C-alpha cells in the first residue's frame, strides 16, 4: 500500500503543469511571403550588418503550426540555411529565458535566472556591446514585444545574478550603447532614467506600454513597423549595425497553453521576418540568423487542413522543454549555421565571421 501511495505522489509530480486538451485554430488572417530566392553568400569579407531574430519559446512545431494556419507558406520557409540548437543551461537541462538569452547574447552558458554573467560572477560581454566597441564601431539595437527589461533583451546589455532585479537591469540599459530601444516596460524606469534613455541625439527610444506590450491582435503590425523603422535608421551607420529582434510573446502564449495566441504570435514574428528579408535582398552584405532561446509548451500537431488554414494541436506542458530548436540563416556567411550546434556557438560563429 505504501509503494502504491508513493507511485501516485510521483505520478502527480510528473503530471503537474501538463495540458492535454486538443485545441482548434481557424480563420486567422493570412499573409503573403517574400518573393524570389533569398541569397546565401560566402563571407569572403565580413558582413557589414548582423541581424539576429529570436522567437522566444519557438519550436519547429510552432513554425509548422503557423505554416498550416497561413495556408502552407511562411517567410521562415524561405530561409535557405537550416540547423538546430541545443538549449540546456549551465545548471539545468531545461533552460529559462535568462540563461538561454545569455547564451545567445554572450556565447557562454550560465545558470538559470542569471543575465549577462557567468555562474562564478564574471561579467560577460554581449554581441551588442562587443560590436559597438572598437574595432567594429557598429550601431546596435534591440526590438521586443514584451518589456525591454525582460530576460532575453536584458541579456544583450545587463549583468545581474537575477532576472528579477528589474531596477538593476533598467540602470544597465541607461548606461548601454544601444542606438535603438523598442518594446514595452516603461514602468521600470524612473522619470530621470527616461530622460537619460532619450538623451543621446542619435538614439531612438520607443516604450509603448508600462508593462509588456499587448498580444499581436491588439498591437497590430507593431513588430513589423518597428523593424522597418529600425532598419531605416541603422542602414546609414558608417560601420554597419547589429540588431536583435525578438518575438517575445510566443513564449507567453505557450505558457498560457493558448494555441490561437501562440500561432498569432508566430505569424506576427514571420511577418517581421518578411520585412527583414525584403530589406536583405538589396543589402547582400548582411548576415541574418533566426532562432529561439528554448521551446515552450511541448506543442503537438494532431491534424488540420492546410488549404483551409485549420489546425488541431495541443500542449504537453505550460513550462519550457529541453528539445533542440531550429536555426535559420541567410545572407553573408549563412552557410556557417548548418547542422546541430550549441546555442553558445551562434554568437561565436557570428563573431568569427565578423572578425575575418
Textual characterization of the structure:
The chain is an alpha/beta fold. It is built from 12 helices and 15 strands. It has helices at 2-15, 60-69, 97-106, 127-132, 151-154, 166-175, 191-198, 216-219, 222-234, 249-255, 259-281, 345-354; strands at residues 23-25, 40-41, 49-55, 81-86, 139-147, 180-184, 204-207, 241-247, 286-291, 295-296, 299-305, 310-315, 320-321, 325-332, 339-342. The strands form 3 sheets. Strands 2, 3, 4, 5, 6, 7, 8, 9, 14 and 15 form a 10-stranded mixed beta sheet that branches. A 3-stranded antiparallel beta sheet has the order 1-12-11, covered by helices on one side. A two-stranded antiparallel ribbon has the order 10-13. A hairpin with a 4-residue loop joins strand 11 (299-305) and strand 12. Helix 3 packs parallel to helix 12, helix 6 (166-175) runs parallel beside helix 7 (191-198) and helix 9 (222-234) packs parallel to helix 11 (259-281).
Average pLDDT metric: 94
Taken as a percent bin, the fraction of beta residues is: 15-25%
Rounded radius of gyration (Å): 20 Å
Order of helices and strands: HEEEHEHHEHHEHEHHEHHEEEEEEEH
Q: Helices and strands: which structural class?
A: alpha/beta
| Main sheet properties | 10 strands, mixed
How far apart are the first and last residues' alpha carbons, in Å? 67 Å
Shape label:
globular
Helix content: 25-40%
Number of strands: 15
The number of helices is 12
Unreliably modeled segments:
1-16
